[in-house]
Amino acid sequence: MLAARLSSRRAASSLGANSTRAFTSTSPIMEQFDVTVVGGGPGGYVAAIKASQMGLKTACVEMRGSLGGTCLNVGCIPSKALLQSSHHFHDAKEHFADHGINIGDISMDLDKMQDAKSKSVDGLTGGIEYLFKKYGVEYYKGKGSLKGPNSVSVVKNEDGATEEIDTKNILIATGSEVTPLPPVPVDNDGQKIVDSTGALEIKKIPGKMAVIGGGVIGLEMGSVWSRLGAEVTVIEFLDKICPSMDQELTKKFQTTLKKQGFKFKLKTKVTKSEVEADGVVLTTEPSKGGDEKTEKYDIVLVATGRRPYTEGLGLEELGIQTDKLGRIEVDEHFRTAVPSIYAIGDCIDGPMLAHKAEEEGIAAVEIMAGFAGHVNYDAIPGVIYTYPEVASVGKTEEELKEAGIAYNKGNFPFSANSRARANGSSEGFVKVLAEKDTDRILGAHIIGPNAGEMISEAVIAIEYGASSEDLARTCHAHPTLSEAFKEACMDTYDKPIHF
Ligand SMILES: Cc1cc2nc3c(=O)[nH]c(=O)nc-3n(C[C@H](O)[C@H](O)[C@H](O)COP(=O)(O)OP(=O)(O)OC[C@H]3O[C@@H](n4cnc5c(N)ncnc54)[C@H](O)[C@@H]3O)c2cc1C
Prior knowledge:
Layout: H1 2-13, H2 18-25, E1 33-38, H3 42-53, E2 58-62, H4 69-74, H5 76-94, H6 110-135, E3 138-148, E4 151-156, E5 162-172, E6 176-178, E7 193-194, H7 196-199, E8 208-212, H8 216-227, E9 231-235, H9 247-259, E10 263-265, E11 268-276, E12 279-286, E13 293-297, E14 299-302, E15 306-308, E16 341-343, H10 354-368, E17 382-384, E18 389-394, H11 397-403, E19 407-413, H12 418-423, E20 429-435, E21 441-448, H13 451-463, H14 468-472, H15 483-493
Parallel strand pairs: 1-2, 1-5, 2-3, 5-16, 7-14, 8-9, 8-14, 9-10
Antiparallel strand pairs: 3-4, 4-5, 6-15, 11-12, 12-13, 17-18, 18-21, 19-20, 20-21
Helix pairs in contact: 3-6, 3-10, 5-6, 5-8
The chain binds flavin-adenine dinucleotide.
Flavin-adenine dinucleotide (FAD) binds at residues 38-44, 61-64, 69-71, 75-76, 79, 143-144, 173-176, 196, 217, 309, 312-313, 345-346, 352-355, 357, 385.
Domain Pyridine nucleotide-disulphide oxidoreductase dimerisation: 380-488
EC number: 1.8.1.4
Organism: Seminavis robusta
């Protein structure tokens, strides 16, 4: 499968300039573009660059005023910038002394931290604009809507004028937005009830912060402000945080966050919020109903999820269906009910992740060009960038049990990994799940330092159908954290050495 895909990619990238002519000459209509991408987030901009690299005449319509979508502007990148800065602060305050580094009193300059974040965002979004120029993608700044199977209308940001684009294919990559929580209306400017975008712009370190929703975004943003001194309480409707994760990992993760000072109110729902001059009073009750409680917080972060964003696109007029969660319905080739219109990323089914959107973007334009674009949904990693990090790929133990698949399990703690010990950061473990009969790796789950980088090894293993023995017999550099992955694989098919 992989070899077939590689050869199709090689063929696609060797098409060169003539491919545009070959591609458009089959069409009876003279289109202005071969592909018009609506949305310049990671799904859209990656698809646009790839399409242009393949020789397709490509346009990308983005209304935000900068490229990179949620990810670069108000998502992955700014949140990771704040996580990194707050981690440095926390490390300096709590852990440098363990290494003999005495720095006395330290303080946090919030404006400078926000400047550093903005600098990363500006550099990266500007970088995408440079790449568009480099690869010849036509960038339309404005809101796009679908006027027909081969027509996109753009209302330009600059002057409100409308421009029509004729195009052979359309790729919808309009992403997602925060799902509102009616009892707790967000007002980012007010800095009392914020969503993830507002949580990236907090101007003063809160004393008490409530995070509604125990998912990835809430826990990452909660970590930032907790490290800077806020007392963070996570209020979660369910009985656990990150419910779709491997449960062994979830339990360890919650214990770790508790040790860091997080408070958890599980099986709890928020029914009311009242904004006062100096904070927000939240009313909660047990998820199943029961006695109400009230508590006051300086700031409340609503992080209960995101929903597809397709407003004003004109889907209904073209007969393009959405499901009950508002996701655009597509077939396995990312095609909507209109054959020339495709959709990818957060606005369709699947995990709302930047790298999933990117993979789909590449596959969709390869398919448009007549090649075998494909995404392996079993090999999409998920990472939570807290400290320690949490990273997963493939099946969880609960999923294997439910599917009745017999498996072997290996586990290796970072406390037995020499590099983690030398670094003074050895919390967590690596867990590997492999099919009992074949030893093929089906899932890997890591909580520990650098888990987000280490998970790539498991992704490659799953992509190539490797066995745990394959990985266990692969030489890993010493001393590295990734030796913990090797040893977890040894434990899966036999025994680890260092534990
Ligand atoms: C705080 C936060 C942290 C996150 N961290 C991570 C992370 O660490 N790793 C990860 O993988 N994912 C993360 N995500 C999720 C990630 O940002 C999304 O999954 C990803 O951005 C989806 O990409 P996309 O291209 O589908 O859509 P988006 O990035 O949402 O981009 C869609 C773009 O389309 C534009 N648009 C919409 N409609 C129109 C229209 N009609 N005309 C023109 N333009 C339009 C929008 O302005 C937007 O810029 C995070 C999200 C948030 C909110």
